[in-house]
Amino acid sequence: MIYCNLKQKDKNSAVYFFGTEIEDITGEVEFYTDFSQPKILKQPLKNEVKANIFNKILIKYKKDFVKGIFNQKISYET
User: Fold this and answer.
1) Rounded CA gap, 29 and 4, in Å?
2) Residue 29 CB-density burial (10 A; 0-12 exposed, 13-18 middle, 19+ buried)
3) What residues contact 11, with CB distance under 8 A and at least 6 apart?
4) Longest C-alpha distance within the chain, in Å?
5) Which of 19, 40, 47, 68 has the largest count of CB atoms under 10 Å?
6) Is the model's pTM score more than 0.90?
7) Three-state SS across 39-52?
8) What is the pLDDT of residues 21-72, one digit of tens each?
9) Burial (Cβ within 10 Å: 0-12, 13-18, ≥19) of residue 52
10) Residues with Cβ < 8 Å from 76, sequence gap 6 or more?
């Protein structure tokens, strides 16, 4: 499971803290409203997450992201 908590957002993108455990949401990833490739800014301290997982998250939340809607918490079951 990948857990993401919103860190900051603007009209074109949002940065989320992320991790595979609720106790280790220390990574950072940026998603964009133009549906471009998510950018991993920092990996979590404990378990590294592969970039392809964020493409799946992008597809899951595409309708919201392209409208500039970034929820406070999102997740994806791996």
Assistant:
1) 9
2) buried
3) 33, 68
4) 33
5) 19
6) yes
7) EEEECCCCCCCCCH
8) 999 999 999 999 998 999 999 999 999 999 999 999 999 999 999 999 999 9
9) exposed
10) 1, 2, 4, 53, 56, 57, 60
